[in-house]
Amino acid sequence: MRLLTHNMLASNARGAVTGYPLKLQVVKWSTKEAEPNPEFLRGMLPKIDWPALVAATQALGLPELLPEAPPTDAELSAEGAAADEGSALRRLHRALLEIHIEEGSLVCPDTDRCFPISRGVPNMLLHEDEVRN
Amino acid sequence: MWYLCVFYHRLLDYRRPEVQSLAELFGGPGAGDAVEWRMPENHHVDSPFHLVRLPGDERLAAQIANRSKSASPDRLIHHHSLAKLLLAGLLVKGIYELWGQGTTYEELERAVMAYPEERKLPYLTPESTFKIVVDSFGKGRVNLKKPDHKFFVMETDDYGCNNGLPPVAQRTVFFGREVGAADRHLLPTYQLKSRKYIGPTAMDAEMAFLMANQGLARPGKLVYDPFVGTGSILVAAAHFGAMTMGADIDIRVVRDGRGPDCNIWSNFEQYKLPEPLCILRADNNVPPWRPGLKEVFDAIICDPPYGVRAGGRKSGGRKLIKGTVAPYTVPDEKRDSHIPSTAPYSLAECVHDLLHLAARMLVMGGRLVFFFPVVREDGVANPAKYPEHPCFRLLASCEQILSMRYSRVLLTMVKVGPYTEEVEKAAEERRREFRENHHKWMEEGNLHSAVFSPADQAAAAADGKPAIDRDSKPKYRGKYV
């Protein structure tokens, strides 16, 4: 599970108020290199909840990876950004798309319901007594 | 200008919409709607010969028909590491500048002579090479190698062989210059029989490509399949360079597959395609998206479980909904290992949830492409029964007949209205309605019994009138092909 996915999910169990952001508990994670796609990242950035993404990188022990404020469109479009490993574009790319949570869980901030992540697949299915009426 | 568009004689209903989707993709917004069609005189609409007017120059026609791969805009293949993109239509055999037509060769010759010289001369210079291919619908074929220009003489006649079409009223001979021709060489690579991981309802490769084309799946776009299964639709979308995401309610399918080397991920590895951004286990009836998240997907492409071959399931216990057990709580110590009980998911509710998901999660102008089952009445599918939504406009409906009793129709919709609070409220209300009348919806939408009950039973239900009038079945194969 990439952090992009973490940024989109919430707990929908009975008792959750917003169910968001889900606390990230990591048992095992890895990095898989992927080709940066500036166009995709620029389109996705406005949909990202930045504080939640920063919190997720911190939970992974990578406090230096992302700045407090999201990068600007100009920073993402800067010439040579895709080739420069330290650029805002590459850092965002790494955070959203190259980090994979293999094993761990997502914990609802309201109810502490734990959604397991196993073999990279988050299991968001509810038990029958958790479905809201 | 008008071109002669020659189709393959298959998936008849899907052919024009595919050309229009490709026109939109290569010609820009609005180009798909601007495409005009007419039939050559005396030709049935199921004929492979159609006349098409495209909103653009010959380049657009060539792109649609896949003449030259270099003609594809750089922006489309920019981020795609694969050079072997299949960027064009699967059902277009070729697009031709029509120089003349006639019912006899003499008439054809007169027509070609009368065609403006300035249109013909650029292709008839002494230094260029050419060949003439004689093609026919229902006859033999001649072939030569690598010329600069290709001209086609195409003849259609019935000569006692009608190719599954109604008899040709009038022999027609066409003469045209090839602008572009199809490239189907990738289809065998993707066919299901050579794919590692498939399930009982995996989407056939050709159909998956057609669906991905209808969804305008291309590099830089994000495609989501909420009923992902073994990922057969996303494989096609990824082939066209789109980013993909999928969800399924069955954890065994999405996580386990048939082992570490035979699962959704291995299907992408097999074709050297980028793996999906995300595969998750979730129920589209109780979607796990965070509050405020909307307009993230460019297309939602799926084959919902509609209860004929595989029934849909949703969260909430089967016995709880039936009322055979009182509400209970799963004991805390068993929560981790508890396998949640699910309930059957009616087609109506499934489609409602899908439209609501699409209204919320698609960008404006994004496309929803999905199969919808239709019980055939008097041998035809009833378009009045297609689902509707205030945020969507129906672009195309393509029928594929599966049996005497039912068809599946590929619906292509475009998001034209924003996701507002009213839309959200109306959906919530409808959702309550579904929950309170679960049984009624399960029965009304019971396609399985409509499709599989014995014929005489179905007949009895229709006041003694035979349910299926065997004579109403067209003699030619039509949409069956």
Automatic annotation (TrEMBL), chain A:
<protein>
    <recommendedName>
        <fullName>Multifunctional methyltransferase subunit TRM112-like protein</fullName>
    </recommendedName>
</protein>
<comment type="similarity">
    <text>Belongs to the TRM112 family.</text>
</comment>
<dbReference type="GO" id="GO:0070476">
    <property type="term" value="P:rRNA (guanine-N7)-methylation"/>
</dbReference>
<comment type="subunit">
    <text>Interacts with TRM9.</text>
</comment>
<dbReference type="Pfam" id="PF03966">
    <property type="entry name" value="Trm112p"/>
</dbReference>
<dbReference type="InterPro" id="IPR039127">
    <property type="entry name" value="Trm112"/>
</dbReference>
<dbReference type="GO" id="GO:0030488">
    <property type="term" value="P:tRNA methylation"/>
</dbReference>
<dbReference type="GO" id="GO:0046982">
    <property type="term" value="F:protein heterodimerization activity"/>
</dbReference>
<dbReference type="InterPro" id="IPR005651">
    <property type="entry name" value="Trm112-like"/>
</dbReference>
UniProtKB/TrEMBL annotation, chain B:
<keyword id="KW-0694">RNA-binding</keyword>
<dbReference type="InterPro" id="IPR059073">
    <property type="entry name" value="TRMT11_N"/>
</dbReference>
<feature type="domain" description="tRNA (guanine(10)-N(2))-methyltransferase TRMT11 N-terminal">
    <location>
        <begin position="81"/>
        <end position="143"/>
    </location>
</feature>
<dbReference type="InterPro" id="IPR000241">
    <property type="entry name" value="RlmKL-like_Mtase"/>
</dbReference>
<feature type="region of interest" description="Disordered">
    <location>
        <begin position="456"/>
        <end position="481"/>
    </location>
</feature>
<dbReference type="InterPro" id="IPR029063">
    <property type="entry name" value="SAM-dependent_MTases_sf"/>
</dbReference>
<dbReference type="GO" id="GO:0008033">
    <property type="term" value="P:tRNA processing"/>
</dbReference>
<feature type="domain" description="Ribosomal RNA large subunit methyltransferase K/L-like methyltransferase">
    <location>
        <begin position="194"/>
        <end position="316"/>
    </location>
</feature>
<dbReference type="GO" id="GO:0043527">
    <property type="term" value="C:tRNA methyltransferase complex"/>
</dbReference>
<dbReference type="GO" id="GO:0160102">
    <property type="term" value="F:tRNA (guanine(10)-N2)-methyltransferase activity"/>
</dbReference>
<protein>
    <recommendedName>
        <fullName>tRNA (guanine(10)-N(2))-methyltransferase</fullName>
        <ecNumber>2.1.1.214</ecNumber>
    </recommendedName>
</protein>
<dbReference type="InterPro" id="IPR002052">
    <property type="entry name" value="DNA_methylase_N6_adenine_CS"/>
</dbReference>
<dbReference type="GO" id="GO:0005737">
    <property type="term" value="C:cytoplasm"/>
</dbReference>
<dbReference type="InterPro" id="IPR016691">
    <property type="entry name" value="TRMT11"/>
</dbReference>
<keyword id="KW-0808">Transferase</keyword>
<dbReference type="Pfam" id="PF25904">
    <property type="entry name" value="Tmrp11_N"/>
</dbReference>
<keyword id="KW-0963">Cytoplasm</keyword>
<keyword id="KW-0819">tRNA processing</keyword>
<keyword id="KW-0949">S-adenosyl-L-methionine</keyword>
<comment type="similarity">
    <text>Belongs to the class I-like SAM-binding methyltransferase superfamily. TRM11 methyltransferase family.</text>
</comment>
<dbReference type="GO" id="GO:0000049">
    <property type="term" value="F:tRNA binding"/>
</dbReference>
<dbReference type="GO" id="GO:0032259">
    <property type="term" value="P:methylation"/>
</dbReference>
